[in-house]
Amino acid sequence: MAEGARLVLADGTVFEGEAFGAAGRASGEVVFITSMTGYQEALTDPSFAGQILIMTYPLIGNYGVNPADCESSRIQVSAFVVREECREPSHWLSEGTVHDYLAVNNIVGISGIDTRALTRRLRSAGVMMGIVTSVDTPEEALAHLRLAPQYGSIDHVAAVSTRDSAAWNRDGSIPIALLDLGVKFNIPRLLEQRGCAVTLYPHDSMAEEILATNPAGLVVSPGPGDPAMLDHQTSLLAELAGRLPILGICLGHQVIGRVFGGDTYKLKFGHRGANHPVRDVDSGRVYITSQNHGYALDGEGLGEGIEVKLVHLNDGTVEGLKHESRGILTIQYHSEASPGPRDSEYIFDEYLDMVRERAGDTRRELARRIA
Amino acid sequence: MGSSTLSSSRRAKPARVLILGSGPIVIGQAAEFDYAGTQACKAMREEGIESILVNSNPATIMTDEDVADRVYIEPLNVAVVSRIIERERPDALLPTLGGQTGLNLAVALADAGVLDEYDVRLIGTPLEAIRRAEDRQLFSDMLGKIGEPETESEAVSSWGQARTAGARLGLPLVIRPAYTLGGTGGGIAHDWQQFEQIVKAGLAASPITQVLVERSLLGWKEIEYEVVRDGAGNAITVCNMENFDPMGVHTGDSIVVAPSQTLSDKDYQMLRSSALKIIGELGIEGGCNVQFALAPHPTVLDWRRNGVERPPYTVIEVNPRVSRSSALASKATGYPIARVAAKIAAGRTLDEIPNKVTGRTTAAFEPALDYVVVKIPRWPFDKFAFGDRSLGTQMKATGEVMAIDRTFEAALQKAVRSLEISGRSLLWDGADETAEGYTQANDQRLWYLMRALRDGTTVDALAAESGIDPWFLYRLRNIVAMEARLRDEGLDRGLLRDAKRLGFGDAQIGALTGLSGEEVREMRLELGLRPVYKMVDTCAGEFEAVTPYFYSTYETENEALPQAGLKALVIGSGPIRIGQGIEFDYASVHAAWALQKAGYSALMANSNPETVSTDFDTSDRLYFEPLDEEGVRDILENEGLPPSIVQFGGQTAVNLAGPLSARSLPIIGSSAEAIDLTEDRARFEELMRRIGLPQPPGSAVLGVEDALRTAQRIGFPVLLRPSYVLGGQSMEIVQNETDLARYMERAGAAGLGSRPILIDKYLEGREVEVDAICDGEDVFIPGIMEHIERAGVHSGDSMAVYPPIHLTNSERDRVVDYTRRIGLALDARGLINIQFVVMPGDGSGSLVYVLEANPRASRTVPFLSKVTGVPIVELAVNIMLGKTLREQGWEGGLWPERDLVAIKAPVFSMAKLVGVDTHLGPEMKSTGEVMGVDRTFQAALAKALMAAGLMLPAQGSILLSVADHNKMEAVPIVRRLAGAGYRLYATEGTAALIRADGIAVETVHKIQSDEHPNVVEVITEGLVDGVINTPEGRLVATLRDGFQIRRAATEARIPCFTSIDTAAAAVEALVHGVATYTVAPLPEYREPRAASVPA
Ligand SMILES: Nc1ncnc2c1ncn2[C@@H]1O[C@H](COP(=O)(O)OP(=O)(O)O)[C@@H](O)[C@H]1O
Ligand SMILES: Nc1ncnc2c1ncn2[C@@H]1O[C@H](COP(=O)(O)OP(=O)(O)O)[C@@H](O)[C@H]1O
Ligand SMILES: [Mg+2]
Ligand SMILES: [Mg+2]
């Protein structure tokens, strides 16, 4: 029989379940994701750093875990909450169970709870801190939780970003700098497939370091936490804006929004799932997108030249920006998918077209000057 | 002038849209299209567009006059629909919601130039897209163009070519003859001998001597995506579904689970992207279904072989329309595909269509599920024990059930309970002992797998032999493990809770622990273990939802707090099966509406995903649950014990009357006591005796001796049936002592010996049927129906005429009087259906016998409601709520006959059921019905036969082979056929009779003779256009020949009449009906005829 475990929310609600993965305790902001597949990609998504992740789909682990489904080099969530975890996975690529995967990586899990009731609670009360524990009584857990730092007070980006700059691949023809605020592997992977040579830069890079290698473009990655805390990155991007074509994804989008005068705010329970409809305001086309963010950009304060190009169909939140003259494209969602629909991979193509065009412009400009 | 073949949804919104229904319920096309059509009509109304609906099936909600604006219950063919178009002048036609029937008819109308002639444009998916999806060659070209993988195949025209192709592709091989229907003549070859055999047969079966030799994908995963795309190119997938049974079993015959369980995100997105790419390329505008085969493992398909990387999947087919799968997906997710497809056809884009479930989002999103859905098909093999039970590429199920829960095990076990196969759970161990039980798919495979797992067979071994993904088998093994725990461990709260979470029913737990189901129930209630109800909300709880659509589960939070105010629970009719069809869903839906009209909240319980009753906006609250005692009692307790209505959900609901009232749960309408009085034969006989109404003489007998004695007393022919079965099962008419003895012996051998057999005098008279409404004081009869076939053909399988054509005034008065007396004697409240036989009397006038009475809605309620215009269900519901007929403005007696003739004709699905005899008898075999309505009998008959596909061509030839006792009656039929210029073929005895009448006839040879053409060959070689074959008693030899004749006719898809009465009617219609039929909206026929205009 499995050991008991419990999830205690900051408001004192207790959900009793069974322990899986590692024994112990872990606290974090409790969030839910509605994607029905892709649990391993979610577990390893750095944007979930500092968070306790609930899967709303009840059966998790059916196809096991495998190296190809990792989106970063480790599990990023602080704890994992499911209705049922599967100990008998079936998939030809599977190399083990979610249980073992969590245990080996020392991540606490809890199963057997009414995840729908929990989700409904968060939906109405908003996300809040919580703790998963297999070693405490509810009272003890609550005491630990009170001592734990608030999610919004931590610089999660610093914790997940690469420490040193590093080449992802060298064999591409378009050199792209990728500012790593918590990147998912599928971003450099898709860039590589499109002929880019990608170099990852740490979150605290300076503009000169990036410009020194003469990249054709800059991609600012997604990542965890409150964009309002990212002062360094905001001034970095303010410096780079206009000097390189930039693609900002998720957190990258938010930081760029801040550069252009927009403010960011916390959503009640975020957008996390693979089914978010986004409308392109010019074409009217609707795209189903993969999303994972707890903060959003307020379009109000945005300055001249930058336009809201994409909006969320359900709640009207800003989903993408475009700055024509400065060559900036941003999206609040995940064009790299993984997990989720691949419908937005075209964003990379659009961005790279822009990169090529600018490179051509620059070459023409140089040629003109020389002549 | 606009071209009908070019569609652009962005064009102006149409004003009048013609919607084609799917016709009668047949295997492969069931209630899901009533659901789709009804949604479409509602959507059109919301858009301010007038709908003109055509369907031949009266038992549908879509043909209600308050659903569509103009209703035509007419045959679905080019001739009739052209006349409707000419009259109504619609500016648009919506072809994609009426199944394959609607789609094919739309294409035929376009090809015939009718659409161009009347300037009707197709809306929704354009014709070009339909053709590119339906035509295998065009489809394959399209896949090639966009680089999507298809199954390797080769078209061959000779055995030599086939051998080469086969060698290249490798065994096993799938053989598909060109231009035949539904897999006819095809099959799967596992060895070269089989291959040769199937190829040669297939080449012979193909009109162009061509077969497709296709690489077999046996054992691959079968995955479906339901996709919706609008005219602006926005596209979404509503959900995907994974088949438990791998490729090789038709998805309609597979256990299906939603969403997929064994696909990683990469697999899922790979197929999703492919589906979207395909429908984008096709230009679908509306709903669409894409089927894939996914290689489960590199050993199945080495997709990196030879350095070339190919995707690990292939596209099987695309259905460019809403389908059975889309109905399932709609119910599984809460996303109404048909409604959205109709709105897209009306020019809307996805983001302009509100999501009614959340009330705040739109149709442009993809549902997120936080539960598991399991569908299990319902097969007719409980009826057709001699049919071939194996499952393959051709569908055999008549219906399906769906269950929802938070674990796969629970969803599966609830679905099994929902099948309503005599209370069978996964514990049932009655499947025949065969080694092939789980390797060859059949209707009992699930139970074979359970047995094997209990016997310790490993999951790997089972997976290897069945091709079923190990994940599913592990889940089954988990159920087996729980069975063992229940058997071995003491039942405490923890164990009971774990068992309930895996979907174990109370009765099942009782069987494992030595308790009664009731004891288990009491125990769990004491332990505080009740199910909670969770909402199907399309968004996994992310948004507040307003949908009142629930499923039970054993967790903590209950989202279905008791509905406030006056309310009642309508118990639906479960899966569609032979004997219990869509008619009962029609009645259930109307019951819900009537409750609402009376100011009550209507709660609905049902397990059938195809239906209108399980549409979330039909009732105030929908419980998607098994319709057994446990399921219904849990719902009632959750709602605070509101009254139940059991009268409309067929036998499913009626069977619950006893158990519910035994627990003092209130039932409104006729009491459980009244129901028992009619169902218990002895009690009913006693009642009839008491009120002085005649019944056919007979009694219950035990053993051969007893039977022979009784038969001598009452005289042959006699009608035999086991005492405990319903639906005319195992019922037989026997002409002599030999056959009687044989029947009794067979019954004894089948273990029925200890139970009595009912033996009745067979009265070969006219069968008459009434539906009546009774309030305890008055009995109101909306109409009387007379059967075309004499008694002995099950009422569900006979053609019925309204108003009766042969009843004398005195006979009619007696029928009315008897009905009144029975209704009052039973103290019935609501509906009652009574069957009578009228026997010509000797001098003193005819005799009217009572065959049976059922205090519930019958199969004919929709038919009668439509032709009389009486709101039958509504009147009955109001009576249940306490209002008398008079208070509702109606009174007792027979409602004046309408000035029309309406004929209901049964439709069979025999082509799909190999090995089943097609002849009519007391056991019901039909799956659906059509209606022909007109001013004259002949014209109505012609339309009914046309709609049922039983119309003989104007000119042609026919094969006759009639039983001796029918020979004299055949003479006038033969004369008329000859008079109509028909060429006649007949078997020896029949030919002699015809020749004696001075009519030319060609004698055909017996099957056993060496001469050709024999009786079967004249059919298979296409020499005849129809067959009249009435079976001869139960003599084995003639039965065998007759069986082959009837099967051959079925497979050749030509009309085959097995009752002399139907044959006479068909010839009558041929001679007089075809030239005279009219085409008009149904309400017009109900109006009195305008003062007759001279022709
Ligand atoms: N190449 C194949 N190998 C094995 N099974 C097949 C193959 N092609 C089709 N099938 C099976 O036959 C079934 C019916 O084929 P399909 O083309 O979908 O016909 P339908 O139009 O009747 O649905 C499928 O559901 C699948 O299980
Ligand atoms: N005594 C009888 N004589 C002639 N036909 C009968 C007699 N009893 C039943 N039948 C025929 O058998 C059919 C089925 O019998 P019924 O009792 O109605 O079974 P079910 O309960 O399945 O409806 C009837 O529709 C009728 O045609
Ligand atoms: Mg199919
Ligand atoms: Mg098809």
Description:
The complex is a heterodimer of chains A (371) and B (1095). Chain A is an alpha/beta fold and 371 residues long. In chain A, 26% of the residues lie in helices and 31% in strands. In chain A, helix 1 (39-43) links the parallel strand 3 and strand 4. In chain A, helix 8 (231-240) crosses helix 9. The longest helix of chain A has 25 residues, at 346-370. The model of chain A has no long low-confidence stretch (mean pLDDT 96). Chain B contains 35 helices and 39 strands. In chain B, the strands form 7 sheets. In chain B, strands 27, 28, 29, 30, 31, 32, 33 and 34 form an 8-stranded mixed beta sheet that branches. Chain B has a 7-stranded antiparallel beta sheet with strand order 14-13-10-11-12-15-16, sandwiched between helices. In chain B, strands 17-18-21-20-19-22 form a 6-stranded mixed beta sheet, with helices on both faces. The longest helix of chain B is centred in the middle third of the chain and has 19 residues, at 470-488. The model of chain B is unreliable at 1-10 (pLDDT under 50). Chains A and B meet through helix 3 and strand 15 of A and helix 9 and helix 15 of B. The complex binds adenosine-5'-diphosphate (2 copies) and magnesium ion (2 copies). One adenosine-5'-diphosphate binds next to strand 14 of chain B.
Topology:
The complex is a heterodimer of chains A (about 375) and B (about 1100).
Chain A: E1 4-9, E2 14-21, E3 25-33, H1 39-43, E4 51-55, E5 59-60, E6 79-81, E7 84-85, H2 98-104, E8 108-111, H3 115-125, E9 128-133, H4 138-147, H5 156-160, E10 166-167, E11 174-179, H6 186-193, E12 196-201, H7 207-212, E13 217-220, H8 231-240, E14 246-249, H9 251-259, E15 263-280, E16 286-298, E17 306-312, E18 318-323, E19 328-331, H10 346-370
Parallel strand pairs in A: 3-4, 4-6, 5-7, 6-8, 11-12, 11-13, 13-14, 14-19
Antiparallel strand pairs in A: 1-2, 1-9, 2-8, 3-9, 10-12, 15-16, 15-17, 17-18, 18-19
Chain B: E1 16-20, H1 32-46, E2 50-55, E3 70-73, H2 78-88, E4 92-94, H3 99-111, H4 114-117, E5 121-122, H5 127-134, H6 136-146, E6 153-156, H7 159-169, E7 173-177, E8 187-189, H8 192-205, E9 211-215, E10 221-229, E11 235-243, E12 256-258, H9 265-282, E13 286-294, E14 313-319, H10 324-333, H11 337-345, E15 372-378, E16 399-405, H12 408-418, H13 445-454, H14 459-466, H15 470-488, H16 493-501, H17 506-513, H18 517-526, E17 532-535, E18 549-553, E19 567-571, H19 582-597, E20 601-606, E21 621-624, H20 629-638, E22 644-645, H21 650-662, H22 672-679, H23 681-691, E23 698-701, H24 703-714, E24 718-722, E25 732-734, H25 737-752, E26 757-761, E27 766-774, E28 779-790, E29 800-802, H26 809-826, E30 830-839, E31 847-854, H27 861-868, H28 872-880, E32 893-894, E33 901-907, E34 928-934, H29 937-948, E35 957-961, H30 967-979, E36 983-986, H31 988-996, E37 1002-1003, H32 1017-1020, E38 1026-1029, H33 1036-1051, E39 1056-1057, H34 1060-1073, H35 1082-1086
Parallel strand pairs in B: 1-2, 1-4, 2-3, 4-5, 18-21, 19-20, 19-22, 20-21, 28-32, 35-36, 35-38, 36-37, 38-39
Antiparallel strand pairs in B: 6-9, 7-8, 7-9, 10-11, 10-13, 11-12, 12-15, 13-14, 15-16, 17-18, 23-26, 24-25, 24-26, 27-28, 27-30, 28-29, 29-33, 30-31, 33-34
Helix pairs in contact in B: 1-11, 5-6, 7-8, 13-15, 14-15, 17-18, 19-28, 21-22, 22-23, 24-25, 29-34, 30-34
Bound molecules: adenosine-5'-diphosphate (ADP) (2 copies) and magnesium ion (MG) (2 copies).
